[in-house]
Write a structure and sequence with these properties.
2 strands; elongated; Serine Threonine Protein Phosphatase 5, Tetratricopeptide repeat; 64% helix; two-stranded antiparallel sheet; mainly alpha
Length: 448
Amino acid sequence: MNCAKRCLVALPLLALAGCAGGGAARQETASQPSPSPASPDGERPRALSPRGQRLFEEAVAAAEEQKQLKVPPNWEALERRWRRVLEVEQLPEAWFNVGVALEHRGRPGEAREAYRRALALEPRFGPAATNLALLDEPKDPVQAAQAWAELSRRFPDDSLPRERLAALYLASGQRDEAWKLAREALVRDHRAIGAYKVMMRVALERGKLDLANLLAVKALKLDQDDPEVVAFVGDVLRQQKDEPAAVAHWKKAISLEDDFLPARYKLLADAFAKEHWEGAAEQARAILRTKPDDARVELALGIAYRYLGQADKALSAYEQAERLSGGKLAEVHLAKAVTLMKSKEQCEPALNELRLYVAAAGPSASADGPAPRLERECEQILAANKQAEEAARQLKVEAEREAARKAAAAAPTPPQDSAGKKPGVDPRLASPADDNLPIGNERPTPTK
């Protein structure tokens, strides 16, 4: 519940089609403007020119048509329509709706300026103030709570500041205060879906499953395609031990919003518990597309790859997880060691990773933990391998000796004379002085 819906508003401050996103929501009741619509505070009537009135009604109708067709809003076209209104009438509602369209088009800086223009025209325009506060919401929860408390005082009839405060209190564990603020938001706007979401969570955390489910049903009546509410129903079903139905709801949530991470994290955990490694790898990759800096999900992806027999991919994922964690994720070393030992049969580097894990994990790597056991197993394997290598070397030496003995025994015996002496060479034939003489020492007859 980190953001509110940015919804188009019509005169007088009634929301129109095109609301998207999760978290707290403002009013979603469609309305056509009257010929002399009220100002945002409902006190001073604002007269529009006939052309301005017509353009405003056309923009409202275009937004409502997209809502009825249930197609993704064409925010660029809607922005153009509201800018045509502004060419004729400087209306805070038109500037607000331009800001909504710009936010959905991923242009928060321009949206911020549009909301400021709306507030400049009407300082008491609560929706513009709250959407501007959402864009600039402090990351520190204490500062954020202070900002929303101030807005709730400035705009006591606006439900959104109370929805945001309720969500912040819930995140800090203050359930009673969260419940109270959510109820106050619903008093101001019975369609404040963000308030229902807070109350759903409080009921679930207190173990009141029937109440949690009832609140979820009410929220779904407001928006049946809200992935957060759909996923929440899955959470309730899991508490009721209906795992297949819970998984079905989480899958439906991501079919509604592909990058809805809470449902994907639950599906990843479910796949791990069931050792469905293909599914685990699929969910991990999907999470990393949206949140590429999650070191633990990288680690989970590596483990899934190892079980799928893809050791090199597993080691690559572990390296990425270690880099993302800044070397602070001790489990990476344990996962590396297991992969090197079991998949790559490399015990020496595995031993080094196990020692790094023990050093990083500290007391948690107790004598009964996996690391010492794996270390002993690896050392035994290395010792056995060393003994096997020595035995193989001895066998080779003995084999070479035996081969030499057999070769000597198979060699032919030289002939001997009657006296037992080996026959020699006639010394006369070997005399260097007679090398060129014919056999028999016959000298050639001199020629005259």
